Amino acid sequence: MRNNFLSFFFVFKFIVFLPAILISATTNVELMKQNWPFNGIFGRFDESSLQRGFQVYREVCAACHGIRHISYRDLKGIGYTNDEIKVIAAEYEVMDGPNDDGEMFEREARPSDKFVGPYENDKIARLANNGAYPPDLSLIVKARADGANYLYSLLNGYKEFPDNFEASEGMYYNEFYPGNQIAMPSPLMDDIVEYSDGTEATQSQIAKDVTSFLAWTAEPELEERKSLGVKTLFFLILITIMLLGVKRKIWKDVD
Amino acid sequence: MIDNEEKKGFSAWIDKRLPVFTFINHNLRDYPTPKNLNYFWNFGSLAGITLVIMIITGILLAMQYTANTDLAFDSVERIMRDVNNGWLLRYIHMNGASMFFIIVYIHIFRGLYYGSYKYPREILWMLGVVILLLMMATAFMGYVLPWGQMSFWGATVITNLFSAFPVIGDYIVTFLWGGFSVDNPTLTRFFVLHYLLPFAIVGVVALHLVALHQFGSNNPTGIDVKSDGDTIPFHPYYTVKDYFGLGVYLIIFAALVFFAPNFLGHPDNYIPANPLQTPAHIVPEWYFLPFYAILRAVPDKLMGVLLMFAAVAVLFILPWLDKHKVRSAQFRPYYKQFYWLFLINCVILGWVGAMPAEGIYVTISRAASIYYFSFFLVIMPILSRFEKVGELPSSISSAVLSEKFDKDSESYAK
Description:
- By secondary structure, chain A is mainly α.
- Chain A is 42% helix and 6% strand.
- Chain A has seven helices and five strands, in the order H-H-H-E-E-H-H-E-E-E-H-H.
- In chain A, helix 2 (47-59) crosses helix 6 and helix 5 packs antiparallel against helix 6 (203-218).
- The radius of gyration of chain A is 24 Å and the shape is globular.
- Helices cover 66% and strands 1% of the residues of chain B.
């Protein structure tokens, strides 16, 4: 009986994990793996890193990229208070209406509004960016294989074009981008932002912070999920051990 | 006229008029079950429980989901972010589909090993194949609903397969789409059918259980129940064993949901569907990969489509392909080896299904497809005629006792 049980696990692992592992093995360049605090069973976000990352997003990325799935009120999740959020939201203008006169009007954003993107529509976004569309970043970490490491690598992966590379007009070389030609110029450099908490703003530190922030925008439920997961597993393992005991006791006399 | 023999009490009153308690007693309590079932017999009840989990989470998700091409993606993100415990519901439902297929595939391979499809359980087996087909249709349509890149392009590739049929092909495709491309009408009908089909599955599962309880479970020896000594009542023996199995299952399920919820999914499905941009590789969900590999192994489109459907359809006639008198592979030395080869072959098919259709992968997928069909259409009929088996134990009890005896003498020898 015990043998059957082990072979069940074997079959399970084999069937489930083999194809997935093999799929992930097809990417060609080794990413610059980082030790993210939100990895692992007990993973948590580093709140100060998220706030620094949010600053980077606002001062650098937001010029071209939106985070349309995030509301201003969601910033509570990275440690801002209601009053601070109201101030942040008020910096943005949203189109509302029509009012009682039938007119559309602009007003300050409220905490319940979604983040206002940099462009009014996709066409303008493409026009402003040499025909390339700067994707929305809310889900970018989930929408790429090994997203956090990929994003960090991409932000640090800009190089000069190799000698015999046929580059297109207005494109940049990036080691980690599929096809190596990317329309986005290297967005980060040392001291492109000034951190108010005194953290040294090296390029890799900035890349790390903004990646953490975008990991949060992709999975704002991560901390709740993992802590509930630990409790659930603890409960399930306990009750399963008890059930095994009951099962053994009941089956004792069967032969 | 009052029956003097009548039992007293509320439940007895109900039971006389509507025999629910008799039914439960008969099917879940006293129900005589072979005493030697191993843990592979847990997977039937696990599949049933998974179906219930999927229906409950699915109904709750449907309350928040919007089946419209402009809104579907964002409505799913709203569930993930703004609906209370919405992320939990969606991740359970999403990973539940994978768990459902794992459970059902193990359930099928168990039936294949122990000959559970043989006389008198042919219809039981065929109903199971119907459930598998319904599950595949339901899972495929469910994957389309979040309207990500893989949803859209998966739907486009799979529905386009029907265009391979001569004359009526294009008509069928237009009919499935409800238009001239995968678009809003396609999404809405897939949503409707995705909600409807699980209830059809419930119906077929009920028939599956009626057919099962007609002759009772098969068992690892494949020998029929001969006397009361061969069986034990379902409750408490198998209820507690099923509960324990459920506990182990939920641990694995929960680990996936809470710690690796997107492990089995494709990252591209978090990019909103874009009909103007084809993803680099269009890959179906892992549970379709073996069939996808068979489809791509054939150079001709129509033949590929037909063979892919045939790969499932062949299971229907399985009871008539394998007519060997002995059920369990335990007593069939040759079948046993071909069986394990078949299992490995299916994993290989799944693997090449995930690889690009080029070079060595095409050759591997062809060889594996040939073995897939040969196993059913050549090896099984030949083995049923020529495979010799030794003497079988006279009953389940004697088989169990001799196994116990072997083990005891082994430990004495040590």
